[in-house]
């Protein structure tokens, strides 16, 4: 029988929804209906995502029978995140999952992507076998991330090795300022210029494709409040009058954790922003926060460690060639 891989069509909706309902085993607060709406309604563009720029959903069928599906999320800076992918329960254990992940990798290579990655629960043995078989490595492990008792594994595979002999450049999330006092407040338009400048000056050191559109998407996310289905986020700004001394972005995630990323600014502003971000995350019911710091930026890592964050691994060049990020989390 002929096997076909094609883009998602609206007729696939019910099938995908029933397949995806199973993921509740690994993710607290998982609702297949809302999840699939978010996945497929904006197939080409993730409206409120700030690092995702496009999505592709594929379905595999054989003899007119749908067998499996996979989602590819294209990220700023050259990587592709796989997820979720699912095989019809009656068709498992016959190599279909492996076939589809290999297809995803080929597609990523075709598109010139440097890296492919995914996250899975350590309890999900079949999917972890598939990633191992396809040559992925576990780069980091976040305990109790999306469900108590479940360790979330971050799997990565670098597809294009960077050319050797790159010039080493220092990276720091820190800026200098003479202002002694500052306040931390939610973003408002008065901070636009300083916020934009901070993002555009700093983030490109370890993130490619950071531009005005990224800044705008971040701000739109802030306006969505704290609904994770709408990619809501909260931007906190450390400021002295209109001078922006730092910013942090808090993103609530399915299953309860909050992503705190990025954190930029003077050293004291960063410490206060992390403190306030933790408070905010606790306030919205998050049980933990997680973040990423450039591996070269020891200063930010020291700030995080002094505030009780734990290192959970290093992800290889997710957003820019040769720029690895250290993963941290903290239980609230
Ligand atoms: C994960 C999934 C996509 C794998 O699909 P599949 O078609 O069965 O994959 P494959 O047949 O290529 O490989 C599955 C591997 O897991 C193994 N496996 C199956 N059930 C298992 C179990 N309960 N415990 C351990 N290993 C198991 C199979 O033996 C096979 O390994 P092998 O090739 O070494 O024998 C499928 O199980 C699924 O849809 N799960 C539900 C959705 C999900 O959890 N998706 C991942 C989250 S993003």
Automatic annotation (TrEMBL):
Keywords: Transferase
Pfam families recorded: Acetyltransf_1
MF (Gene Ontology): N-acetyltransferase activity
Annotated coiled-coil segments of the chain: none
Domain N-acetyltransferase per the UniProt entry, residue ranges: 3-160
Record InterPro entries: Acyl_CoA_acyltransferase (IPR016181), GNAT_dom (IPR000182), NAT_camello-type (IPR050769)
Gene3D superfamilies reported in the protein's UniProt record: 3.40.630.30
Keyword set includes DNA-binding: no
Name of the protein described by the UniProt record: N-acetyltransferase domain-containing protein
């Amino acid at each position: 029988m002929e096997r076909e891989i094609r883009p998602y069509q609206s007729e696939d909706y019910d099938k995908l929804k029933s397949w995806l309902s199973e993921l509740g085993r690994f993710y607290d607060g998982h609702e297949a209906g809302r999840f699939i709406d978010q996945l497929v309604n904006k197939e080409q563009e993730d409206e409120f995502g700030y690092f995702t720029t496009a999505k592709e959903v594929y379905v595999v069928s054989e003899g007119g029978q749908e067998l499996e599906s996979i989602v590819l999320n294209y990220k700023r800076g050259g990587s592709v995140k796989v997820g979720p992918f699912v095989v019809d329960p009656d068709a498992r254990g016959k190599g279909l999952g492996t076939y589809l992940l290999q297809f995803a990798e080929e597609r990523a290579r075709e598109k010139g992507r440097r890296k492919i990655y995914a996250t899975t629960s350590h309890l999900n043995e079949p999917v972890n076998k598939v990633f191992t078989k396809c040559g992925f490595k576990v780069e980091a492990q976040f305990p109790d991330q999306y469900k108590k008792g479940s360790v979330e594994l971050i799997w990565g595979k670098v597809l294009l090795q960077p050319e050797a002999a790159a010039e080493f450049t220092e990276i720091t999330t820190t800026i200098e300022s003479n202002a002694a006092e500052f306040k931390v407040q939610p973003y408002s338009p008065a901070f636009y210029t300083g916020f934009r400048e901070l993002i555009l000056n700093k983030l490109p050191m370890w993130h490619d494709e950071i531009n005005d559109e990224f800044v705008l998407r971040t701000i739109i996310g802030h306006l969505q409040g704290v609904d994770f289905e709408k990619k809501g986020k909260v931007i906190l700004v450390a400021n002295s009058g209109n001078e922006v001394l730092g910013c942090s972005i808090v993103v609530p995630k399915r299953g309860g954790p909050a992503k705190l990323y990025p954190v930029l600014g003077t050293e004291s502003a960063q410490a206060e922003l992390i403190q306030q971000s933790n408070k905010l995350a606790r306030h919205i019911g998050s049980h933990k926060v997680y973040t990423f710091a450039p591996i070269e930026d020891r200063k930010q890592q020291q700030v995080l460690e002094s505030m009780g964050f734990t290192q959970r691994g290093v992800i290889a060049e997710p957003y820019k060639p040769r720029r690895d990020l250290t993963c941290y989390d903290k239980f609230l």
